[in-house]
UniProtKB/TrEMBL annotation:
Species, as recorded: Rhizobium lusitanum
Catalytic activity: ATP + protein L-histidine = ADP + protein N-phospho-L-histidine
Record protein name field: histidine kinase
EC code(s) of this entry: 2.7.13.3
Enzyme class name: transferase
Pfam families: HATPase_c, HisKA_2, PAS_4
Keyword entries, A-Z: ATP-binding, Kinase, Nucleotide-binding, Phosphoprotein, Transferase
Domain Histidine kinase/HSP90-like ATPase residues, every copy: 243-340
Stored PANTHER family: ETHYLENE RESPONSE SENSOR PROTEIN, TWO-COMPONENT SYSTEM SENSOR PROTEIN
An example molecular function term from Gene Ontology annotations: protein histidine kinase activity
């Protein structure tokens, strides 16, 4: 069999494949004349199949395919100097919704080097883009709503803290005043947690800055003389989900408040050190002071509201609590081991 009949057979096969394709396809000559169009192309873009063969691409329909940039890219593709891959165009037709199309085009090698042919595939991504935009809009609206709620919560916490302080000034009982001051400190620390979370992105919280700002807030509200007492923070590059950070922040808050209230009785100076380290799903949080230590060398914690809060939060994180004599002072260590909770993690090294 001679090459000419083979070439005719291959050309006929190509035409048959193009016409029967379920995807919108165009078979073009080098000068962008339409050799064939798939039935899907004609149906999708509402063009009479009988009017297509032999016409220039720019003449199809009502001239909506006359796009200078597309024409230039197709010309460069035919010349072998470019290739159209996922090129997006807007197809605008009279009295119809603009369609967003993705175009791919390549030279079709049918064995005849003297007659360049282009195969153009088109995908209508209008609905997909609209759906993606809707999702983006919903995410943005949700973020705005959450931010508004966070502002309102922060304002409410400030109001509650002010009411507690006013009440503390009015009561006569020293015990009641002490309870109100404790409540005020806790509300202010929660407000600090709220402020930090409101600035976090993607639902994740970087613990170093989070603990630093939290302890700065606690120090500002409870330490009158910064030259005498201080709070230091040492944290690695750990990043945790927001709900985990809330529990960790409240644990730190309770332990710092407890240390400031009880660790430095009759001491002129003191230091509280917060340390957090993690490796994979394993992590350790410690809050240590150089104060008076546990009475009579005991390492048993006094039962109280703060202790109950810390224990409940540690259980929620599936952590184990240890109370050690730091000589001087006391160290509370909360650690998590194993794969029981994968919500804490450190980012991969850069």
């Amino acid at each position: 069999m001679s090459k000419e009949p083979i070439a005719h057979f291959e050309a006929a096969s190509t035409l048959a494949v193009v016409v029967s394709s379920n995807e919108p396809l165009l078979f073009l000559s080098a000068d962008q004349k339409v050799i064939a169009a798939s039935t899907s192309f004609c149906r999708t873009f509402e063009i009479d199949p009988a009017t297509i063969p032999g016409r220039a691409l720019s003449e199809l329909g009502n001239g909506e395919w006359a796009m200078p940039k597309l024409t230039s890219l197709l010309k460069a593709t035919a010349a072998g100097s470019a290739m159209i891959e996922a090129y997006e165009i807007d197809l605008m037709r009279p009295n119809q919704k603009t369609r967003q199309l993705v175009v791919n085009a390549q030279i079709l090698d049918d064995g005849n080097k003297d007659h360049i042919r282009l195969l153009v595939a088109l995908s209508d991504v209008t609905d997909a883009r609209a759906e993606a935009k809707l999702k983006d809009d919903l995410v943005r609206d949700k973020a705005i709503l959450i931010q508004e709620v966070q502002h309102r919560v922060a304002n409410s916490l400030q109001i509650i803290a002010s009411v507690l302080m006013q009440s503390a000034r009015r009561v006569q009982s020293e015990e009641a005043r002490g309870h109100l001051h404790n409540a005020h400190h806790r509300v202010m620390s929660i407000a600090a947690v709220q402020r930090q979370l409101s600035t976090s992105s993607g639902g994740n919280v970087e613990l170093r800055s989070y603990f630093t700002q939290l302890c700065e807030s606690l120090g500002a509200s409870m330490i009158a003389d910064e030259s005498r007492f201080s709070i230091s923070v040492t944290v690695d590059d750990s990043v945790v989900e927001a709900d985990v950070s809330v529990s960790l922040g409240l644990i730190v808050t309770e332990l710092v408040i407890n240390a400031l209230k009880h660790a430095f009785i009759d001491q002129q100076t003191g230091r509280i050190a917060i340390d957090y380290r993690s490796t994979g799903s394993d992590w350790t949080l410690s809050v240590a002071d150089d104060g008076v230590g546990m009475p009579n060398g005991s390492v048993a914690a006094k039962a109280g509201l703060g202790t109950g809060i810390v224990e409940a939060l540690a259980r929620n994180l599936q952590g184990e609590i240890k109370l050690n004599d730091a000589s001087p002072g006391t160290a509370v260590i909360i650690s998590h081991r194993g794969d029981a909770d994968r919500r804490t993690r450190i980012p991969a090294a850069a």
